[in-house]
Amino acid sequence: MVEKVRVRATLNGEPVDFLVAPYVSLLDTLREELGLTGTKEGCNDGNCGACTVNLDGRIVDSCCVLGAEIDGSTVETIEGMAEPGRLHPLQQSFLEEAALQCGICTPGFLVSAKALLDKEPNPSEERIRFWLAGNLCRCTGYDKIVKAVQKVANSA
Amino acid sequence: MHPFEYVRATSIDEAVATLAKHGERARPFAGGTDALVMARAGRWELDALVDVKHIPETNVLDLGSGEFRLGAAVPCYRVYEDAKVSAAFPGLVDSATIIGGIQIQSRAGLGGNLCNASPSGDGICSLIVHNTTCVIAGPNGTREVASEDFCTGPGQSVIGDGEFLVEMKMPTPQKGFGAAYQRFTPRNEMDIAVAGVASSVQLDGDTIMSARVALSAVGPTPILSSAGDSLAGKEATAENISVAAQIASGNASPISDMRGTAEQRTHLVGVLARRTLERAVERARENN
Amino acid sequence: MTTETTKGKYNVIGTRPIRHDGYDKVTGRAIYGADIKLPGLLQGAVLRSPHAHARIKSIDTGPAKAVPGVYAVITGADFPGAHDTLVDLGEGAVNFRYASNNIMAGDKVLYKGHPVAAVAAVDKNTALEAAALIKVDYEVLKSVTDLMEALKPGAPIVLEDLEGQDLGEKIDGPTNQANHIRHDFGDIEKGFAEADLVIEREFTTAMVHQGYIEPHNATATWDEEGRITIWTSTQGSFPTRRQVAGILQLPDSVVKVIPLEIGGGFGGKIPSYLEAVAAILSRETGRPVKLLMERSAVFEATGPTPGSWMSAKVGVKNDGTITAAYADIRFEAGAYPGSPVGAAMMCVFSCYDIPNTRIDGYDVVVNRPKTAAYRAPGTTQAAFAVETVVDEIIEKLGMDPIEFRLKNAAKEGTRRADGPIHPLIGNIETLEAAKASPHWNTSLKKNGPDGKLRGRGIASGYWFNIGLKSAVTIAVNEDGTVALTEGSTDIGGSRASIAMMAAEVLGIPVEDVRPHVADTEGIGYTDVTGGSRTTYATGYASHDAAQDVVSQLRERAARLWDVDLDEIEFANGNYQSKSDPELRLSHKELSSKLGSTGGPVVGSASVDPEGAGGAFSTQIADVEIDPETGKTDVIRYTIVQDVGTAIHPAYVEGQMQGAVVQGIGWGLNEEYFMNDDVMVNSSFLDYRMPTTYDLPQIETIIVEVPNPGHPFGVRGVGEVPIVPPVATIANAIHDALGIRLRESPMNPGRILTALDDKG
Predict the structure, then answer these.
(1) What is the C-alpha separation between C464 and C460, in angstroms, rounded?
(2) Do C228 and C97 sit in the same domain of this protein?
(3) What burial letters (b/e) apply to C406-426, b meaning 16+ CB within 10 Å?
(4) Complex ipTM value
(5) Partner-chain contact C691 B190, CB within 8 Å
(6) Which value, in Å, is the radius of gyration of the alpha carbons in chain B?
(7) Across the B/C interface, how many CB contacts are shorter than 8 Å?
(8) What is the count of structural domains for chain B?
(9) pTM for this prediction
């Protein structure tokens, strides 16, 4: 029997201290152990980006990270994106531009797009499309997602 | 998935000791983008995964005047976001920017790409054409292996029980050196090479002093083609490059599978060899 | 851009409000099927067949049951054995016996991924580990996955008890041909005899998957009273209830389905896979059980759309008049009968007015997963065949592609080849809008950078749309807002469009309508979210329920003012006296007086409307091809579509763009790649759906020819946009390279081969 390991990390700005089985992914850690189900499972093998979270300032597929690995790290998920009572401009833009249909890929896209704009406030359409290629959406054809990101970029 | 321990090693000795203890039931990992998928798919049955990315030596990114040291756990983004490294190694950047998407590049590195030993690994051929030497730590100390000798079969490498890749060393490009990697994929990103070619040239004026051409996804391991040697001493002309590309094509021994047919892959190697040699020559001329 | 005929006609319809459920979906709060948490919840895993076709000799569940943390292991023997009952689910029918065997195999497995056992355990990994310990003794049988092979005498028989049909006659002996049907109209021989030019070509398309990002999931409890509660992601909570009840041989009313948010479906989440399995695991354990499908199983064991073999033949006069057309359409049904070949036959020639037609359709069982609906089921395949032949005819005649289509266009009164007469449709208006589009009027430079070659293609498509049953209730709050309850699960923003129609009727802002998708005990029977019916039929019910509210509020006003009901009129959002201008209250003002005029007002409606009205789309693609690698990039794309009335234009555009991109993936790369009769590319990596970096912007032109069969003129919009893309791309590739590809996907390897053959 493999014992659980203790993990201390910063999650959406708050300290967390929990036990998790060492073979459990960060995705399942967030969803099952920490109750944050905003991060979604689409493929569980790093090919759809639905489980994208920000780990120490970089976006990662949380299905390809172990929960145990984040000891000492800073993790941001979709649940930490809005200020209390106020959406992040990207969240607002996704709503206004109808950049979601079913919405299952939306948390991943938002976390990815935020990381891009934090790094490069004014990316080209080509750059946005390249950056977001690790996030699959099957509903929108991406058009409105790209426009929603451009809208925030242009207003920056 | 067989339940495994997670061991965060902070020194080479600690990693080697843990790996040695478990033998084939332990694996080193850094980015996890291959290792966790393999474990979950049941292709590896492990008692321990040893995290080697907290070891100082695996994180080195040191561009010296004669030698570039690239730690085995350095993720792709550190290669292309480092201004000096990316300026000196555009051929490596070609690879580092197409391994997975941005999420994968945050974690996966050229070292892990090499250790995964996939015939289609996008980083391996670039390492080969940069004359990379691999530094491997194990129970008997460290040893060095040429990158073209590292992979021994699909998913198989020279890494033995208790061993792991610590870093890679390659000559810092001198005046007249250029390299490039291109792959063919049906999608523009997030895809696996149907075929890929890395090329490098060392020019003296218009003369190719030496060249290396390596092929991916057209054999059980990445292949160091004889096309490079065929160019030594020749002028960097379109005709000579075209002849070399045909040699590269002849060195391919692909299979037909869901990603492409053998015939298509052999053809693509010729196209990509020509294109990457042209690009390498272009970069070599810019680097004068 | 929009060719709007309804602009200015409405207050709410045609605007672009933020959807009501949007806030929860951009913050991660929205609860999708896999997100549900219940006390004592167990996790399940399903063991699946590695073989394409095998007899199950025995199953030893002992080793799995012995694993600590395992609560139950079940197999097909734990199912009651459903009877042969055929039930229509709205977009395809289901036979309960086959449905039961499909979600848990009986004595045979019929495709790789076919479930053979399931485990409930304390956590997911324990369940998976235990499932792997189940020992199944298989006798591997010869398999057949190619439909033309399956039709040959001596082919391996997929279903020994299948009673095949051929043109209404029962086929003697075992067969894989589930059915062969035919539509005849006019005199086909005479029609072709009159033609100056006849082109006949054969086509194949590969099986493809809807590719929704959310895997199937189900959580169930089976309580002491014998009642089953299911939380799931589904395109229809009532059809799911019916399937679960049918498979478990229970009355519908014993099962309650609570629909959670759904992460895409496109037809693939109409069939039920995990729900009854979770229910039986719950029965065995006395605990709630959750099942979450792995991505590989989503590909291998849910319902893709069929691969096909087709032949299309079209005859024309030299002036471009079509005199006759023939199609032979053969679809892979998968392991059980029921491909959408019937829908394909309804649509294949329906863009055109053709006096003489014959259409043959075959439904063929093979050792592949049972197919399901995928967005205009069967019609993308059919359009690939007919629109490619039409393009070749246009080329030979030297005609303009849009003029040819206009000349032969189906219009109001044209008889469809399968019988029905087109009502008022927007086929011609769509073609005219394409003709006037910026894209069509911008010339394409045929030579791209680096030796790449460019071409432009155009194609049209038709989808009939459906109505079916929907129920809506609207409860008026005293503050003037209303709570709208519907039964259509919201897969892409339909709550907003349904709410907008109620707001339009009530004369209130859409923000004052709070739409809610109820479970099967909270609203009347409502059919699937599919067939492009939700905004049409549930919107129809929303309109009618709002009218019911208006009628009740008029009564309240009459009571309040003590005047005759006839005296009260409702205009511009106000209830007012016809004779006394002083007596006037807005919806909001009147709502505040409900308590003193008789209590709450609840409007309701249930509908089953017949006038869905067909939809047309014409699409234009520019491609750029690298002749050295065979790679095709779509560099510009325009979709023109008649939507009747665009309720929420942004989500209408979204349907158009999303369908086009699915069609681009279908045409260029997606396929079930089979090796030894099993799918080998069952991952998002190797299935190769388009990413955002593979695509240009998708330009949309909305045409509005209001549907007379709907109070606001709505036509379904979700399906017809996926009909033309594969043909559009094929025609663009021909324009670029001079080669006609008649096999889909038109991937780089096929293009290289075709270029080689051309020399």
Answers:
(1) 14
(2) yes
(3) bbbbbeeebbbbbeeebebbb
(4) 0.98
(5) yes
(6) 19
(7) 57
(8) 2
(9) 0.98
